[in-house]
Specification:
This protein is mainly alpha-helical and 463 residues long. Among the domains are: 91 residues, Fumarase/aspartase (N-terminal domain) (Fumarase C, Chain B, domain 1, Orthogonal Bundle), CATH 1.10.275; 203 residues, Fumarase C, Chain A, domain 2 (Up-down Bundle), CATH 1.20.200. The chain has 19 helices and six strands. α4 crosses α5 and α10 packs parallel to α12. The longest helix has 37 residues. The chain is elongated. The two termini are 40 Å apart. Bound molecules: arginine (ARG).
């Protein structure tokens, strides 16, 4: 047992209590951030005259050697330490002696852990953002290649109106674009340095919190020491953004699973992104999409868990907050893994353009356009709706599409129909006439794609 406290205790901690309390098994994940934060802290302490130059140099050297040894495997982070902070401090004292005991001057593990977690999650925000950007690039590529790939658009999972694959993919582009905007927002809100808040009430040492904040790339120090050590809003916001990303991926997964089914056959997943069955030789299953859909629950769980942990704890730091880590780490790893896999799966899947176009043609997706045709020739919309409804019923009985009917049959139902009806309700016309911003018509889709190209080019860079 290696712990940083013990002076006021007369007994050893019970083994079970020690194990229950310890966090090193998971907070070792932010070893790097702990060292970085400690270096910034001692550099500031020296600038303020709280440490001598020699002490600062010895500590920085010691911390740097610990970092190198952990990186190259010479020093192993083991469970004999209570947490990552104890591991770093104990090893520092082992290496440089008394100067190492000054590392924690003007600092508490409460502001230290708040800093480490912010540094860690801040980097993760950027990593998730980068992965989302790659996914957006993959989606945009599919869009550019499929401006005239017709397919049915659905409502209630019933064929509704014809659209293009580019248009459908564009919906996902907008979703993931919003996800990135959320991350950007969160990044800026979380980018304030809690170090210097101490246990909860600041410290009597003349710390320069602005300086520490700037050394660590923060926009400034946090402004209330109690809030600094008890705030986990940024984790909640980040997990909420992650939950939304997973919700988007899950909807996309669901569609891919449906589209990849024998009944639809809109897409075929690449062999590298499918799995087989141990008993049924014919099977090629969309396991990746199913797993992404399944893992969504796990990320929602992390969000609910942290919200529940935080809801009843009084200010300031309470040990409950140690529970923020494992679930956050797990959720972040899950999201990163899912987004990366998704990009691979989406960019390798093959679209069956003919099947999609055929499906758009045989589901009366041009019924609205047929009604609009009559409206353009003076029939009030409600009457046109009724006429086309009867026409559809007639086609269902005859087992054919509207465009299969002869001019005579059409005129029997409504004399307003002329020969140009066939052109007016062709798949191409139905799509290409939809030219309002955001609609599937090729000309307007090209404008939107150019705008999104621009968005990816003038991208948000943090630095
Ligand atoms: N392991 C703790 C956590 O993750 C670090 C802070 C400990 N502070 C304390 N006063 N016990 O929250």
């Amino acid at each position: 047992m290696a712990q940083l406290w013990g002076g006021r205790f007369t007994k050893q901690t019970d083994d079970l209590v020690y194990a229950f309390n310890a966090s090193i098994s998971f907070d070792k994940k932010f070893f790097e951030q702990d060292v970085t934060g400690s270096i910034a802290h001692v550099v500031m302490l020296e600038k303020q005259g709280i440490l001598t130059l020699e002490e600062k140099d010895a500590i920085v050297k010691g911390l740097t050697s610990i970092r190198e040894d952990v990186e190259n495997g010479k020093l192993i982070i083991t469970d004999e330490y209570e947490d990552i902070h104890s591991f770093v401090e104990a090893n520092l004292i082992d290496r440089i002696g008394d100067a190492g005991k000054k590392l924690h001057t003007g600092r508490s593990r409460n502001d230290q852990v708040a800093l480490d977690m912010r540094l860690f999650t801040r980097t993760e925000v950027l990593a998730i953002d980068e992965l989302l950007k790659e996914l957006l690039q993959a989606i945009l590529k599919i869009q550019k290649e499929n401006l005239e790939t017709y397919m049915p658009g659905f409502t209630h999972l019933q064929k509704a109106q014809p659209i293009t694959l580019a248009h459908h993919m564009g919906a996902y582009f907008e979703m993931f674009k919003r996800d990135r905007l959320r991350l950007k927002d969160i990044y800026h809100r979380m980018n304030y340095c809690p170090l210097g808040a101490g246990a909860l009430a600041g410290t009597t040492y003349p710390l320069d919190r602005n300086y520490t904040a700037s050394l660590l790339g923060f926009e400034g120090p946090t402004l209330n020491s109690i809030d600094s050590v008890s705030d986990r809003d940024y984790i909640i916001e980040l997990l909420s953004a992650c939950a939304t990303i997973m919700m988007h991926l899950s909807r996309f997964s669901e569609e891919i699973i449906i589209w990849n089914s024998n009944e639809y056959q809109f897409v075929e997943l690449d062999d590298a992104y499918s799995t087989g069955s141990s008993i049924m030789p014919q099977k090629k299953n969309p396991d990746i999409a199913e797993l992404v859909r399944g893992k969504t629950g796990r990320v929602y769980g992390a969000l609910m868990s942290i919200l529940t942990t935080m809801k009843g704890i009084p200010l300031a730091y309470n040990k409950d907050m140690q529970e923020d880590k494992e679930l956050t780490f797990d959720a972040l790893d899950t999201v990163k893994g899912c987004v990366a896999l998704f990009t691979g799966m989406v960019s390798t899947m093959k679209f069956n353009n003919e099947v999609m176009a055929k499906s758009a043609m045989n589901g009366f997706t041009n019924a609205t356009d047929a009604a609009d045709y009559l409206v353009n020739r003076g029939v009030p919309f409600r009457d046109a709706h009724g006429i086309i409804g009867r026409l559809v019923l007639y086609c269902i009985e005859k087992n054919c599409s509207i465009e299969d009917l002869s001019m005579e049959e059409l005129k029997d139902i409504c004399p307003v129909f002329e020969a140009d009806i066939y052109e007016a309700i062709s798949l191409k016309t139905c799509v290409e006439k939809r030219l309002t911003i955001g609609a599937p018509g090729k000309a307007v889709m090209e404008q939107v794609i150019a705008q999104n190209d621009q968005y990816l080019a003038n991208d948000w860079q943090v630095g």
